[in-house]
Backbone:
């Protein structure tokens, strides 16, 4: 029996129209889009689960805050209101606003990395990895083994393998300017990281005298899952868990498009004054003056309110239960999904659902197309289209271990009936899965091909 859908701790004040499409219209749209869901227009999509980033619904308080925005170039009241909430929640000594998370990552990379440096993390998100690579440095992923096993029910599959981290620092320590950890671990299935693990990372960083930065996009969802799954913190508030987690680090990057529930915005945070000063100079060059950093004053105000709302426990309970509800609904209908449910998305195991399609015929891409054609649902392929690469020395194609389709859930946006539609659609897709064919690439660029490649049925 699937649990009741969680009670939404809000009511709807403003709505956005969804165009209901027919199967024939969706087939035509797919053909026009070269069988790549990134090429669809948003009104060709009925339920858009492409990303949870910047796609959430702002509250009436956030819209009201927008009107309070102070657009002064320097020293705006909006900045001071943001500062108060950032200091309360993150607790670092210094911070800079940025236009989104990758801008914060770009500045951090610019001021810290040299050729051939190594930056370990559980799993770097693709923009973090790209920012590191763009400085001729190397991102290294050290997530625990369970993190790559779709059948493991480990409660913290985002944890860093501490032995591997120690080993890396023993071998290559001189080349490691800082360590990172991503909470929750988006590129590794949206899985949380335990406080015990972050304490372990801190201890190792202290031993080797390395700063620790947290990629904190989903810090509130991670803190809520810590409260639920890590006994010691069950009576702590989410804000206290988050503050303690940040106290274990030397700085953080943050995309406010996730847990601050805004459509645009980011932060870069530090304790080190010297790094902060260097970052400030970079920020002025790339983003703007330090009291607005690439955002309008009104965006700072919306972020200030959103940070508080993102930590609200009735919201976080609903949010994570909604993800779990979708997960359980899919499991109950025979759709293979990666467990346990994380904070912001469910990941469908296309490899398990379509064993007749080899990785060379992109089973996750084929499944994402079928979900769209059957029910107008747009997810994202996280399989061989996105992650396979060719070894330059041998020419061999290296396929990723899992072929997944991610359904990311925008915050406060879809209701029970929308998610029921997702479950029913995927149940039908699963029943007819043997009829789904693989796809082949018609055209693709050399890098980041998943965004623009076109495909045809095999
Ligand atoms: C874990 C993680 N880090 C960094 C980013 C980059 O943030 P932004 O999209 O705001 O640049 C994302 C975005 O999805 C993310 O999920």
Residues:
């Amino acid at each position: 029996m699937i649990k009741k859908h969680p009670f939404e701790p809000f009511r709807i004040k403003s709505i956005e129209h969804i165009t209901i499409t027919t199967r024939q219209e969706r087939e035509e749209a797919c053909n026009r889009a070269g069988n790549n869901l990134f090429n669809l227009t948003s009104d060709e999509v009925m339920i858009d689960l492409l990303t949870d980033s910047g796609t959430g619904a702002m509250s009436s308080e956030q819209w009201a805050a927008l009107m309070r925005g102070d657009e002064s170039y320097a020293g705006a009241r909006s900045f001071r209101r943001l500062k108060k909430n950032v200091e309360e929640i993150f607790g670092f000594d210094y911070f800079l606003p940025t236009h989104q998370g990758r801008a914060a990552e770009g500045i951090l990379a610019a001021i810290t990395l040299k050729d051939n440096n190594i930056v370990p993390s559980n799993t770097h998100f693709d923009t973090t990895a790209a920012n590191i690579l763009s400085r001729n440095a190397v991102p290294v992923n050290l997530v625990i083994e369970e993190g790559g096993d779709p059948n493991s029910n480990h409660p913290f599959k985002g944890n860093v393998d501490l032995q591997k981290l120690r080993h890396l620092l023993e071998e290559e320590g001189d080349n490691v300017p800082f360590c990172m950890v991503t909470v929750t671990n988006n590129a590794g299935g949206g899985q949380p990281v335990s406080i015990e693990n972050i304490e372990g990372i801190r201890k190792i960083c202290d031993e080797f005298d390395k700063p620790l930065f947290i990629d904190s996009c989903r810090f509130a969802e991670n803190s809520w899952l810590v409260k639920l799954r890590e006994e010691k913190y069950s009576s702590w508030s989410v804000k206290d868990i988050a503050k303690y987690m940040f106290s274990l680090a030397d700085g953080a990057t943050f995309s406010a498009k996730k847990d601050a529930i805004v459509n645009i915005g980011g932060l870069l945070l530090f304790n080190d004054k010297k790094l902060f000063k260097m970052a400030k100079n970079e920020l002025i060059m790339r983003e703007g003056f330090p009291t607005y950093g690439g955002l309008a004053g009104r965006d700072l105000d919306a972020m200030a309110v959103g940070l508080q709302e993102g930590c609200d426990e009735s919201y976080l309970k609903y949010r994570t239960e909604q993800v779990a509800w979708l997960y359980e609904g899919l499991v109950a209908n025979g759709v293979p999904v990666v467990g346990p449910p994380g904070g912001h998305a469910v990941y469908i195991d296309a490899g398990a659902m379509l064993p007749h399609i080899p990785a060379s015929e992109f089973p996750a891409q084929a499944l994402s197309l079928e979900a769209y054609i059957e029910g107008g649902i747009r997810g994202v392929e996280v399989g061989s289209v996105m992650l396979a690469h060719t070894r330059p020395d041998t020419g061999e194609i290296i396929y990723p271990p899992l072929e997944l389709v991610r359904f990311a859930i925008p915050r406060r946006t879809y209701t029970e009936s929308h998610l029921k539609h997702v479950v029913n659609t995927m149940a039908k897709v699963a029943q007819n899965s043997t009829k789904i064919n693989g796809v082949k690439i018609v055209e693709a660029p050399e890098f980041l091909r998943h965004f623009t490649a076109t495909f045809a049925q095999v």
User: Anything to note?
Assistant: The pocket of pyridoxal-5'-phosphate is lined by residues 53, 100-102, 125, 127-128, 182, 186, 215, 217, 255, 257, 266 (CB under 6 Å). The mean pLDDT is 95.
